[in-house]
Amino acid sequence: MRILLLSMLSCLFMFGCVKRTISISSNPNGALVWVNDREVGRTPVTIDFVYYGEYDVRLEKDGLEPVMTSRQVTSPTWDFPGVDVVVEIFSNQESSVFWHFDLEPRNDDPELLLLRAHSARRSVVETESE
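Below the sequence we write its predicted structure tokens.
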């Protein structure tokens, strides 16, 4: 009984025993990664996360088109309020998320860049008019 109480208290003081990680890979490897505007390393990289929700992700590598997107991390059923307290105290669960990105070769063709700029401008004007 004493051991159970000590393990429960140690988990609470360590802010839970559940390990939450996001692993990010890319093809090719070695892309610089930012998550929520914080540089986290080069692919493949694994980071810890605290909350479930939306994350902004950016990958860059010389000679390749940058990737700027957002990804969602959804909570597993065992991590909902109420259940999570029991899981964090009595188990060593792990919540792992894997994201993979394929990077494309950079295309600096002026015609293509101009076409993309016009398209972006149109989408902004349409959004403002709504």
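The longest helix spans residues 110-129.
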